[in-house]
């Protein structure tokens, strides 16, 4: 997996102050994407143990609410296998930090068994994140007044409640 960028002290990609990790590689290629350079799986630099140590060290600072993983596309299969390792480490070493993920795929279509981005670790990722912002960016539905998303079709899903209830529970942040 490659990373396009790590943004520290970020307040645009989730609640509170966050560390945001932009992974590389995306097959969605949404028109109007604000990070088209991250479509290339080779963009940026390789994700290494030193990179992961930096993320953990930075995220351990008391002013961070959590981590946001976006891209590119975190749910590309090659990215999922590395992302789950980072999530496990955060859950073990920094259990009070929350985790947001953004995806251009749709939770209840693409990330379920039989879906186009479901692999052996997808459920494990979904079980261990707090918020999932799902759906392709649609330029015709762009709305700059929305909280934490770019187009009106995208949803902010409360993953803890969704996984408990087995149906989609939207976060109050959708309003």
Q: Care to describe what's here?
A:
This protein has 175 residues and is an alpha/beta fold. It has helices spanning 49-59, 77-93, 107-110, 122-127, 159-165, and strands at residues 2-10, 18-23, 45-46, 66-71, 98-102, 131-134, 155-158. The chain has a 7-stranded mixed β-sheet. The longest helix is centred in the middle third of the chain and has 17 residues, at 77-93. It is globular, with a radius of gyration of 15 Å. 34% of the residues are buried.
Short description:
The chain is α/β, with parallel strands linked by helices and 175 residues long. It is built from 5 helices and 7 strands, in the order βββαβαβααββα.
Keywords summarizing the entry:
175 residues, alpha/beta, 7-stranded mixed beta sheet, 7 strands, globular
Helix fraction, binned, reads: 25-40%
Report, as a whole number of angstroms, the end-to-end distance.
Answer: 34 Å
Please tally the β strands and state the result.
7
The profile of the biggest β sheet is: 7 strands, mixed
Mean pLDDT: 96
Q: What is the H/E order? A: EEEHEHEHHEEH
From the structure provided, what is the oligomeric state, counting identical versus distinct chains?
single chain
Q: Structural class, please?
A: alpha/beta
Give the strand order of the largest sheet, numbering strands 1, 2, ... along the chain.
3-1-2-4-5-6-7
* H/I helix tally: 5
Radius of gyration: 15 Å
- Indicate the low-confidence ranges by residue numbers: none
The proportion of residues in beta strands is 15-25%
Shape: globular
């Amino acid at each position: 997996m490659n990373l396009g960028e790590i943004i520290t002290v970020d307040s645009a990609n989730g609640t509170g102050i966050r560390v945001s990790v932009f992974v590389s590689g995306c097959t969605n290629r949404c028109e109007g994407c604000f990070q088209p350079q991250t479509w290339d799986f080779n963009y940026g630099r390789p994700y290494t143990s030193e990179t992961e140590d930096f993320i953990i060290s930075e995220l351990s600072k008391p002013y961070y609410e959590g981590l946001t993983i976006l891209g590119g596309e975190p749910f590309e299969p090659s990215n999922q296998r590395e992302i789950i390792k980072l999530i496990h480490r955060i859950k073990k070493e920094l259990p009070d930090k929350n985790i947001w993920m953004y995806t251009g795929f749709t939770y209840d279509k693409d990330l379920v068994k039989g879906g186009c981005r479901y692999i052996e670790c997808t459920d494990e990722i979904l079980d261990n994140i707090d918020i999932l912002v799902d759906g392709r960016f649609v330029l015709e539905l762009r709305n700059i007044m929305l909280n934490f998303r770019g187009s009106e079709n995208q949803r902010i899903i409360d993953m803890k409640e969704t996984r408990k209830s087995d149906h989609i529970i939207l976060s109050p942040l959708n309003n």
